Structure formats: structure tokens, C-alpha cells
Predict the structure of Glycosyltransferase family 92 protein.
Amino acid sequence: MKDRGKKQRDVVSWSGFFWCTLIVVFSCVLFTGFTFSTFHLLFGGNEKFQPVLVFRWQAPSRESISGEAPVTRSISIRETVLLPDQALLFLNYPPSTRLFTKEDLDCVYFSANSSLKQKPLYVDGDDRDSQIVRCPLYPRGFTVSLALKSNGENITAGPTHSWDSLVYEAMIDRDNTTIVFVKGLNLRAEKISNSSKFECVYGWDFTRPRYLLRTNVVSIAQEIVRCKTPLSVLSSPRRMMGNNSVKVSIRVKGRGIFHSIARAGLHSVQPDPPARKEYEMCVCTMLRNQARFLKEWVMYHAAIGVQRWFIYDNNSDDNIDEVLEWLSNANYNITKHIWPWIKTQEAGFAHCALRARDFCEWVGFIDVDEFLYLPSTLGLHDVLQNQSRYGYVGEMRTSCYSFGPSGLTRVPPQGVTVGYTCRVGVVERHKSIVRPEALNSTLINVVHHFHLRHGFKYVNVDKGVLIINHYKYQVWEVFKEKFYRRVATYVADWQNDQNAGSKDRAPGLGTRAVEPQDWSTRFCEVYDSGLRDDVLRIFAKPESQILPWQEEHEEHEQHLRTRTKGKHKGFFYDYVR
């Protein structure tokens, strides 16, 4: 009987436990249902809310590298993107960690049976949220990672993405929409596409569709998608900060979601345009390995009235950082933006227009071999003021004269504006100076010009007032670099047969980087020394004629210049006459 009573008490105890557990579970279900209903009310509209998993960063144990930085267990490769000629490895740093340099790292390639190492091509970025290590393209059958030179320890690698189909950049616009940049949509140039065929998705892991936020596409054209941003993303600063911020991608309905490395970080913009911009005239350019020409380009344009420069660096591996530091120390307002994405110049210019919009009244989109030239007595400020009087003018289109090698076989020591003085007779193409506030919300552009909002128009600037000297066909040493790759999306590379007769190519050159015997005398129909004369008058030292952007060994360069100048004069006199 005693044992039986004990057994009954045990049964009652377990029964009580069962009912207690049931009540707790039921309460949790009610609370969860109420919470999700509340979220649903917050999202509203066309958004389809599904719960989002939040993963906390768990900092592993730390050790030091030479007493300065943690070992690789604290650092990881967030993601890798495979370009046709190199691999981009995005590093993920914990707080208070010294950033790696090129000298700290090796690119490591693994296969099933072997491994090998190579030096990185370059390390881009000076903050822990955006540093990129660029490694040479690895052999077939290998995967790429990184290792520390100091101890050979490998850095943990994350997912790898192909460049052919990728969401690669994103930013929040002042109207709280997300601007998304996508490679692989293959949409037509200058055409608005049907937005109902696409959907925007937000989350941390796009392989788990149940845990994503979905919103409508506002507009889509070329490589740019404008998305409605979820309220939860806008209202949570934590979700928009650093490497742990929420990602955004694009879903093609019926096909799937693009791979993405783009994080919808909040762009620091003013909600309303300021009444008066800080700068009247800015310039945006995209370049690769043009550091040796940058000083002349910046210093000249500063002298005529340009106040700020936005440099979009497209995988340079020359001394561009040193040159930019020199210019910055000389009080030129110039900033570098890492833009490693190949053949995306149109998207890059749209990105730059958004960044410049809050600071610049006008923005010129020109290359480093293009120089604004004012042949009349009007200055750049006068030209801009004249056009600003008309509120409907949103873009000034400026014609270009293309200059040839001008008889030279070596890079002119005084710079392109002084060295090249012979050009083709007719204008080729145009470039634009735009009001960023006037741009169409789709941000459609074809490098040479943008689409404008309703109510704005473009004007063609008279060649006697403003022209662009385009030093397009320089000495072969410089010109052959154009065969490496074109930067524009809708322009064929020169080594391809596509559009062989286009004005974007060199007439009669073909698709191979082989120097023609008569290259130095080509593209010379008109002798034009107007800009050269102005540059020498404004910049040259009276005694030596040395220009401020010339490199070291000035006496040697002066000697070469004197010899070349005499040959120049005879060449132009004989050739143009």
C-alpha cells in the first residue's frame, strides 16, 4: 500500500507537469501570433512579410600577429566574386582590428591534390567594411583563398559568386527607395523594362526563401532597379550597418533569385535638396591605371573652375593612391570610390550622380583623357551661370574633337594638352554636364548623356563657347591599353568583331593590338594649338617652361622637350600645310 500510494503521487505529479507545459506552449503561440500580426500591420502595402532570422556575430578567441592584429580565426573572407581576369575577395574584420596590406597576404589556390601561392594584385579599401583583396585568376579546378605570410595560416572563405549574374551594389535614395545594381539582366539600352516581371528581396540568406522580405519593383532599366524598401529595414539602423547589414537581391519571377553581395546601407543624403549647393561644378570619372595622367587633368580643370572630383577606380594596380594622396595634400577636393565591376560605366555614372547630387549644382561626366576647353573669353563659371538662368536646362551636351598622336612616338613629358596638337576635322560624339536634380528616376544613361525628368531639356553648347579636347589616339604605348577592356556596358571591346565600324573604335585598326607603321601620323587633319597655348601661358614657369604636373628629372625632360618641339613644328607645318 505504501508503494502504491507513492506511485499514485508520481502519476499526479507528471500529470500536473503535462498541463503546466501545455499552458506555457499555448501562451507562446498566442504571443507569437500577436507579434506577427503586429509586424504585418507595420509592413502593409504590397510587402509580403516573412520572419527574418538574425544571426549574432560570435567573436572567436583572439591572438596577435606580431603584437598588432588578431590571427585569421578572427577574420574571414565574407564573399568572393570571380571576374574574367581576377578574383575579388571581400574581407570581414571584427572591430578594432588592423587592416591587412598587400604585404601581409598571399593568394592561395587549392585543388584536390595540391595548392599554390601567388602575390595579390592589389588590396583596395581603407576601412573594415569595404576592403577587397584582388587575386590573379586561378587555374581550372582550383579554389581561391588567402593566407597570412607571417605564419601561413589560411583565412576562412565564404561563398563564391560568378560575375555573369550578380547583384553587386545597392544604396538607399532620399525617397527611401533602394537603388540596386545588377549584372546579368541583359536588358536593352535606354529602355524601361516591365517591372511586374521582377521582385525585390531582402534578407541574409537567399537560399532560404521562407525568411526573406519581398517588395515591389518601382522601376527597372538597363542594370539599375529601384525597389520599395521594407519599413523594418529603414527603421532599424543595425540592419544597415557594416558587414552584418541586410542584403538585397532581385528575383526574376518564374526563374529565381540573383546571387547578391549588395547590402542596403543607408546613403547619407538630405531628404530635400539644399537651396544652394556647396559646389557649382564637379566632375565624375571612371578610370583604370591612369595615375600618370591624373595630376594634369585635375590641376588643369581646377584652374578653369572645377571644385570637386569623384574618382571611380576600376581595378587600377598603378600608383593611383599615391597620386590621389598628393593631390589631396595639395588641397584638391578629390575622393576615390572603389568600383571593381567591369563594363559597368553607365551604372557607375548613375551611382556617382546620386552621390554628387547633394553637393554639386552641375556634374561633368568625362574621362581622364578629355579636357574641357573654353576657346572664347567666357569662363566656365560664366557658361554655367548662363545656362542656370533657364530653369528647364538639365543637361549641357558638349561636342568632342579627337586628337591624334601628333607625330609623337613617346609620351609627351609636358602632358597631353601640350604634346598633342593635331586632330580630326569634325566633331565626334559629345559628353554631358548635368544637373543631378534633373535626372530621370530610372537613372538611364549611355555614358554620353542621361535621360531627364519631365520638364527638363538638354541644350547643345556652341563649339565656340565650350568644347572637349579628347586625346583619344595617343602614342601607341598609351593607346594600346584600350584593347585591354572597354568600361561601358553597351560598347563592344576592341578585340571583338562586334560593331567594327563604330565611332567608338579607331578607324581601320581592326581587332588586334598591333601598332600600324604610320600610327604616329594618323588622325591629323587640323593643327589645333589653342589649348596648348593657354596651358603654357597659365601654368608654365617663364624661364624653364616647366609645368606643375611634370615628374622628376625636370632638366632631362626639358632637354627632351626642346628636341621634340623642333621636330613637332616641322612635322605640323609640313603635314597640315
Observations:
- The longest helix spans residues 2-43.
